[in-house]
Sequence to fold (730 residues):
Amino acid sequence: MKATSKTQLRATCAAIAALGIGVSVAQAEPKTNMMHQWAQGSEAAAIALLGEMYEAAGGIWEQTAISGHTSNTLAKLRSDVVAGNAPAAVQLKGPEIAEWNATGATANLDETAAAQGWDDVVAPELLTVMKPTGSWVAAPMNIHRVNWMYSSKAILDDLGIDVPKTWAEFNAACDKIQAAGKICIAHGAADWSDSTTFDSVVYGMDQELYRKAFQEADLDALRSDGMVAAFAQLRKMVGYMDDGINGRSWEQSMTMTMTGEAAFFLMGDWTVASANMAGFKEDVDYVCTQSPVDWGGNGFILNSDSVVFFKQNDPDYVEGQKLLAEIIMSPEFQVTFNVAKGSIPARTDVDLSEGGFTKCQQKGLEDLKASVSEGTLVRSMAHNMTVLQKYRGAMMEVITEFVADDSISPEEAANQLADAVELQM
Amino acid sequence: MQSPNNNSTGSRKWSDLTPQMVLAPTVIAALIWVIGFSLWTLWISVSNSTLLPDMTYHGFEHYAKLWGSKRWTVAYQNLFIFGSLYVIGTLVVGTVLAVLIDQRVRFEGIWRTIYLYPLAISFIVTGTVWRWIFHPNTGVELALHDMGWLAAKFDWITDRDLALYVVVITGIWHASGFAMALILAGLRSVDGDLVKAAQIDGASMPRIYRKVVLPTIWPIFVAVTVVLLQFAIKTYDLVVALTQGGPGVATTVPAIVVYDLMFQRGQIAQGAAAAVMILVALALVLIPYAVWTGWQKRKEGARHG
Fold:
């Protein structure tokens, strides 16, 4: 694997060097400083690859890694922008791209995008995110799938249960599993993980409702009968969890499913990277499928990391941004980066059969393509890909309260959800 | 040549000015950072700021939105419940510990160190360890189950009505050693003759503590209360490590809401409004206290005059 990525690296460098000569102005010396939050582990290794490729293509690479929560990155970015010293490239995602675009501080990448034909290869749901007002201001690095369901192979085999495809089948399976004395759903309660589960529930029950409610924050949709039904399903699912969900991390919940203590685990594809690193095996310890959908077909809730570019005065940095954007969008980088991070490329034209992608990742890309052609692709609310943070935060508060407090009825929850969003308008 | 007379007035002037000059930097710093930034925050809270600060006037809508959100009302209520239980609990436990140690126990130094140690541990570590202790899957409940008592139940941390008391207990554990140290120093400063006089009058030891010793060191209780109150109001990391504000929003405290609004959700104005409300909470406690001490002083002055 190491050897492959090295050859790929070399190939990319050659390709990019050729591109660079063609596109860039000869006298400027491309330079960049990228601000990101990937300071540790496989993510730091993945970003180091970007630096290597950048330097190999003749650029001068600098990075500012801010570990911990996204809010730390945002605080630094805010003070830099206020001080008139915006960084050249920042890892930002979802509606934050539009918010920063609205401040007028972002750079325009249209020239590079047109030259490389980004519009044709990037997953269509991402276009509105990367081009908030019609111009490219960000380059997507990857696509994560949020609506995965991991099933414990041991429990399914023991009880003779097939992987459930609809929520009704899911409930039936859970009743069986609970009767057998096992935990049905492994879960660690937190606002984002409760909302991750709820993303899958709403989407799986009614994708139109999901679009209206979670992508457009439509108040009537948030208050609708469909939402009440989704909350009722979530209430049922809380009953299928054990008593220890509070204060449990997602890694602990993952292990519960991998070791056969619990049957199902609903979580994004970063689970694959962690599970494989912990020594669990696909199709031996766990099976990955999409979380149940009641409307048949392939569903895909996506989450994407991206890099936003901010306006620069120094021509070296302007040139450097072009080079960085080209490298990020190159198929070679998308492959090496995503193998390391457990996600799939943001370009839909990349072949995943080579380069070390796992079966789950390959299945992820197949399902992505299928959902694009079926028109079922959506963005994740729980992972900050749809509405502004203030609406998302308001929604997540209601969802996590609902999971924690069983005295809230589904009708009340749907009303609270709509009220909380309306309050922020 | 200067007359010696002149010289001495000059130096007296300098020595008069020295205290003011030494204090001046602190006073100026306090003016800028406390008053200046409080006013700045106040203005931000009625401005148009969202992602970036924007100083144009907007109005009091941010306050209305803040009070419309359930998370904030829960957090504000928690501040008062947690604050009062934490301060009272810490004072009670601290006093009991101090009185016990005051009985000339053996190895006093060791006991004092043990009780004072929790204060040396950061809130993050305190919160994480107590989360393990309280969590049914890792702590006391698991231990009881392993010992064979399968019906044992100790899941306060996962119960939304009781989780706040988990925070209170952890907070008290953390701070009571600090209260003990200050109160013990106070107890030791009490004149032995007072105690002897009371003993001659035939009062029992508990009665002597209650009626004679503790009342004479009340200023120490005030000092400890003020320090604990500001601990309570700025509580953030303890809750984040212990419960993450959960279950649901049951143990959220205002500092968490302020941080979220300002740094995570790009709502600087609403976050500033929440910060101003924390200041108001502090004022609700401190203004009556200031009025009361002022009134006490005037009473004393009247009595002497």
In short: The longest helix of chain A spans residues 2-23.
